[in-house]
Automatic annotation (TrEMBL):
<dbReference type="GO" id="GO:0000976">
    <property type="term" value="F:transcription cis-regulatory region binding"/>
</dbReference>
<dbReference type="InterPro" id="IPR036388">
    <property type="entry name" value="WH-like_DNA-bd_sf"/>
</dbReference>
<dbReference type="Pfam" id="PF00072">
    <property type="entry name" value="Response_reg"/>
</dbReference>
<dbReference type="GO" id="GO:0005829">
    <property type="term" value="C:cytosol"/>
</dbReference>
<dbReference type="InterPro" id="IPR011006">
    <property type="entry name" value="CheY-like_superfamily"/>
</dbReference>
<feature type="DNA-binding region" description="OmpR/PhoB-type">
    <location>
        <begin position="173"/>
        <end position="279"/>
    </location>
</feature>
<dbReference type="GO" id="GO:0006355">
    <property type="term" value="P:regulation of DNA-templated transcription"/>
</dbReference>
<dbReference type="GO" id="GO:0032993">
    <property type="term" value="C:protein-DNA complex"/>
</dbReference>
<keyword id="KW-0238">DNA-binding</keyword>
<feature type="domain" description="Response regulatory">
    <location>
        <begin position="6"/>
        <end position="119"/>
    </location>
</feature>
<keyword id="KW-0804">Transcription</keyword>
<keyword id="KW-0597">Phosphoprotein</keyword>
<protein>
    <submittedName>
        <fullName>Response regulator transcription factor</fullName>
    </submittedName>
</protein>
<dbReference type="GO" id="GO:0000156">
    <property type="term" value="F:phosphorelay response regulator activity"/>
</dbReference>
<dbReference type="InterPro" id="IPR016032">
    <property type="entry name" value="Sig_transdc_resp-reg_C-effctor"/>
</dbReference>
<dbReference type="Pfam" id="PF00486">
    <property type="entry name" value="Trans_reg_C"/>
</dbReference>
<feature type="domain" description="OmpR/PhoB-type">
    <location>
        <begin position="173"/>
        <end position="279"/>
    </location>
</feature>
Length: 281
């Protein structure tokens, strides 16, 4: 992990705060601590962290409210940590703006792996996009390396969706463009018309992953693996809760885009399978 990373740990339990800080310091973070929600929000504004871990059972303000306040002023990766294990709690945390939600007792190696995955993902997206022509990813070549690349991403070919016109716009190098939405990996920004969208890191990674495959379908399982592992074909276990988290993040994306699931301009649901980019208009 690169030097210069900054983390904020918002945790009222002394033991848990020590554990989280030790793990993050070993992975190269400069760590700042807060033992209450209001202090955590203020600290996130002051130090501009790359990562925030947030206990949900804070002594002052509700954990969901703390997430919302931090999200208003920071695009840091935000991991909620809680003893609450009900699906509704996980969904509320993700809807409030968390990128990930982990339950106690905390599994230390899993925590470190998830943090590593979040940061790898942002670095991978910011890397210069590959040129389709240079790498043989030509949508006009049936069965060529372009289709191999789509398979690597876990994308599914839908009959009637294999022509060049269905994919060309989203396979341009450096940026993805669809119906007034511009996704810029180099600057980690998404513009709708002239307005920059306030996307979380996970929402940005998700819209990037869906749009770059055009009309090819991304399964929820493949999206979980790509966002978590960096490889849609990693073969790692994907739980029902993991797939549900993708649904929540897509719902948040649609709300910010003002997209209608019944008449989508950007993200189309393929019922029972996953998601794909809507048709250009």
């Amino acid at each position: 992990m690169d030097d210069g990373r900054v983390a904020v740990v918002v945790e009222h339990d002394d033991g848990m705060r020590t554990v989280l800080g030790a793990i993050l310091r070993r992975t190269g973070f400069e760590v700042h601590y807060a033992d209450a929600g209001i202090y955590g929000v203020a600290l996130a504004a002051e130090v501009e962290p790359d990562l925030v871990t947030l206990a949900m059972d804070l002594p002052d303000i509700d954990g969901f409210e703390a997430i919302r306040r931090i999200r208003r002023l920071s695009d840091a990766h935000l991991v909620a940590i809680s003893a609450w294990t009900e699906e509704a709690d996980v969904v509320y945390g993700l809807q409030a703006g968390a990128d990930d939600y982990m339950t106690k007792p905390l599994r230390r190696r899993e925590f470190r792996a998830r943090v590593d995955a979040l940061l790898r993902r942002s670095e991978r997206i910011r890397a210069p996009a590959r040129s389709p022509a240079r790498h043989g990813l030509d949508p006009a070549v049936p069965g060529g390396s372009w289709r191999q690349e789509m398979r690597r991403l876990g994308a599914i070919v839908v009959p009637g969706e294999g022509s060049r016109s269905h994919h060309q716009a989203t396979l341009r190098p450096h940026r993805l463009v669809l119906n007034d939405l511009v996704v810029e990996p180099a600057t980690y920004t998404a513009l709708l018309g002239e307005a920059e969208l306030p996307l979380t890191p996970t929402e940005f990674a998700l819209v990037h992953a869906i749009l770059r495959c055009g009309r090819m379908v991304r399964t929820k399982r493949a999206l979980v693996r790509e966002l978590r592992d960096g490889d849609a074909e990693s073969g790692t276990f994907v739980s029902t809760a993991d797939e549900r988290s993708i649904e929540v993040h897509v719902a948040n994306l649609r709300r910010k885009l003002g997209d209608d699931a019944m008449d989508p301009r950007w993200i189309e649901t393929v019922r029972g399978v996953g998601y794909r980019a809507a048709r250009p208009r």
